[in-house]
Write a structure and sequence with these properties.
The protein has 258 residues and is an all-alpha fold. It has one domain. The protein contains 9 helices and 2 strands; from the N terminus they run ααααββααααα. It has a two-stranded antiparallel sheet with strand order 1-2. Strand 1 and strand 2 form a beta hairpin. Helix 5 packs parallel to helix 9. The radius of gyration is 24 Å and the shape is elongated. The termini are far apart.
């Protein structure tokens, strides 16, 4: 009586573990889920929770044997698809750091760095601020739910066994890296333009008054002007970061799922 349900436990557990490979790989590469502050057990539990939903609502063909070359190849395919989905979104999240480098270097905040809790590396303080704002926008736009939906729909677009990403898709993902630089420069454009005008004014002052101490005048002026420019341009920067989040989610669907 107590052993009637045991034969179905191992296949169900194997199906869940197989599904968790793609989901876990996406959570490792994606923003928010892949942050250093998110413990590994939390990622495993989230992957298992989403995996249970996928197994119960979709038909996923799992390999019949575990210790075989075909199974290892299928696991590699699943990991590749998950990493691609998360990596495309992560590329767009590099735009605030590129914008902060352009702004901080002009206003004299390039030396203000701290450890970023998202990736565990040192980054400009302004970049951390913009990254936190973009993360909040990502959550406010239900980006985490859209990512889970993309993972679920990926099993229909790229079923196991047919999940190899072709050369065109890999090239498209690589070329999407240029989007981070373009979006970062556009994000920094309002503030950087004002600071450029200020540097031109300070340069003309240095030519007309050579005895003027540029470090005593130019650095405080750049800092104050940069802070005021960021405060004025921040609504427009927030709107553009919203556009970046939406285009990143759209690119993840288009480039990976086709």
């Amino acid at each position: 009586m107590f052993g009637l349900g045991l034969p179905s436990v191992e296949p169900a557990l194997w199906s869940l573990l197989f599904v968790m490979v793609r989901i876990g790989a996406a959570f490792i590469a994606a923003p928010v889920f892949g942050a250093m502050a998110v413990p590994l057990p939390v990622r495993i539990v989230l992957s298992a929770g989403v995996g249970v939903l996928v197994v119960n609502n979709l038909t996923v063909a799992t390999p019949t044997t575990i210790a075989s070359f075909t199974t290892f190849l299928a696991v590699a395919q699943e990991a590749l698809v998950g990493l691609a989905l998360g990596f495309v979104i992560q590329i767009a999240f590099a735009a605030p750091f590129i914008a902060s480098e352009a702004i901080s270097g002009s206003m004299g905040l390039g030396f203000a760095t701290a450890v970023d809790p998202q990736n565990g590396a040192s980054s400009p303080a302004l970049g951390q601020f913009l990254s936190i704002v973009m993360t909040l926008l990502f959550l406010a736009l239900d980006g985490h739910l859209i990512l889970v939906d993309l993972l679920a729909r990926s099993y229909e677009a790229l079923p196991p066994g047919q999940a190899w990403l072709g050369a065109d898709k890999l090239r498209g993902i690589a070329m999407f890296g240029t989007y981070a630089f373009g979006a970062g420069l556009l994000l920094a454009l309002p503030v950087a333009f004002i600071l450029l005008c200020l540097n031109l004014i300070v340069g003309m002052l240095s030519r007309s008054a050579p005895a003027l101490n540029l470090f005593a005048v130019g650095l405080p002026a750049s800092l104050i002007t940069g802070i005021i420019a960021i405060a004025i341009a921040f609504p427009a920067m927030g709107d553009y970061m919203t556009v970046i989040v939406r285009e990143a989610l759209q690119a993840a669907q288009t480039l990976v799922l086709g």
